[in-house]
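Can you give me the bound-state structure? Components:
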Amino acid sequence: MDFATFLQISDTALRFATPLLLACLAGLFSERAGIFDIGLEGKMLMAAMSAGAVAAVTGSVWLGLIAAIFGSLLFAAVHGIASITFRGNQLIAGVALNFVASGITVLIAESMFGQGGRTPPLEGAARFANIDLPFTETLATIPVLGPFYAEVLSGHTILVYVALALVPISWWVLYRTRFGLRLRAVGENPASVDTAGVSVVRLRFSAVIIAGVLCGLAGAYMSTGLQAGFGREMTAGRGYIALAALIFAKWRPWAALWATLLFGFLQALALRPDVVESMTRVAIPVPFLDALPYILTVIVLAGFVGKAIPPRAGGEPYVKER
Amino acid sequence: MTKLPTWADVGLVPLISLTLAALVSAGVLLAIGQSPMQALSVMVNGALGSSYAWGYTLYYATSFIFTGLAVTVAFHAGLFNIGGEGQAQLGGLGVALVCLALPWPHWTIALVAAMFGAALFGAAWAAIPAYLQAKRGSPIVITTIMFKYIAAALLIYLLVNVLRPDGQMDPASANFPAGAHVPQFQEIPILQGLFQRFGADGLPRLNAEGLPMYQQVPANVTFFIAIAACVLVWVMLWHTRLGYAIRAFGKSEKAAVYAGISPLRIIMIAMLISGALAGLMAINNVMGQAERLVQNSASGAWFIGIAVALMGRNHPLGIFLAAVLFGFLFQGGAALGLETDIPIELRTVVQGLVILFTGALDQMVRMLLGAFFAKKGAT
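Here's the bound-state model for the whole set.
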């Protein structure tokens, strides 16, 4: 693989990693607060449809983004009510919401546009434009780093940079604020948080809502940034890859960035079997590259690479003692 | 919270959950400008209105019985086998390998051999997550999802590169030999009469040889194997030492360990049975209907199995009834897609809502009923 091809694949990798990263951070907030979220996929799908539909009707990608966040929050609210208020099974709630999202997005898109469950192709102001970062010209003379800056880092939509910025922000919120401390505590030992006089229900709902907003961004990126419009099942299991990345990252923000970049890179490589073959000198089947994120996650889960320990109170509804 | 009487907990709670799911579905239909009553009548007619419709409803129900039972056996051991679709797909691979291996002389022999292959492959795919859970504490909920995707990739590879006959475009195996054809309902002597076709004049239609013609339906002998599986699972769970150990382990791991039950053994056995049952679904859809292995052969039946297990309250009798109900929803939804301009995806929404209300919001229904019963008790 020559340097130009590497840059090209890295550029694609960053695009593919962005929705994974946003969804992974969504899962991070939710699961750190003790709410397992299988429903990342459904929320992303709902957001992608909402963004595609509203951007197509209004011609404004920003209104589309707001709609995406709203659509995702709607599902997050149902997940919160089911798993926090009514202490239902969080996993089953997530599975159910994925199901509902998979169907209802097509129903809505079909009844609005009648194009077989798609939204009309978006163009112009209805899509996020690519942003060229400053100084690409001047820095281009620096070997290796210059082209990397110009070809890989520059020229993405705003949501890519938002996603990257959210990594240090998430770290700061989780590890350097009172809210973050309480959020992590509620995922480990909710009773202790309750004893300290802090509302477990409110904290967990905040976490679920943050997850909803982040999934909204991820979905909006899918239909208005990565592609031009919504198509049925367009998230194609990305919610589950994000979940895998979250475990791979052992529920930490910076590690989530590296995990999603790795998985994004694998997805980008799967599109270029010729490059893989020239590098390894044996034909590696594309399905194997598709399956690699899941295989890696199983290896991590099996405890062969450090130990992935989920938040202790994850998945358990909190019943306040009376 | 008031404890509900048993009849209310077993009968009333699922019924109310189902009603709520139906009401929300009706709301969705109204919101997209369709008539819920018309949709219901098309569904009832399309899924129950003729022997042809029943042939499809019971075919789907057969798949859902297997997946529902598979989810249930794992549930009783306190394990959530969420990615059993992978096991079902591998079961399909097992069936295909067995059916393609020999020119089978008679379907009974082929069926027994294919069942063995399906169960073996399904169980093998469940074995690794089970072992990782038991030995290394890796949550089975996540590992089975990962294995579902790995199975999907493996199957794509095998179908495109290994099992696909030369000169065929679509990624699928060769057609199974005629000896591996299991009788469908219209080919079973006792049931045959139900599927006889009649002409417009009300007389039976005859083929070129003067024999009566029958409506072809996908429901096949696997339906009776599914019923037998219900009985066997019931006996295993409630009338054997193993079943007792599985349920005890599922209720309280610590108490079970104290009673001398080995967690490794129970996790492995429960997941192997679950995987085998998931794999057995392939007898119905791969051997009984498609008669070749295609991509996505399990197509969503697994998640419906979760719903079926929840609705059926993890009891084989309940699972049978819930599976028929979901067979109705699945076939009725298909009829909607064909006969009205309501997209077929409505059935996915309805299934999701049923899972949501019966599986995740069941406490809500119980709380509401609890309040009602508490008031009644006070007066």
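A couple of observations. The mean pLDDT of chain B is 85. Chain B is about 70% helix and 0% strand.
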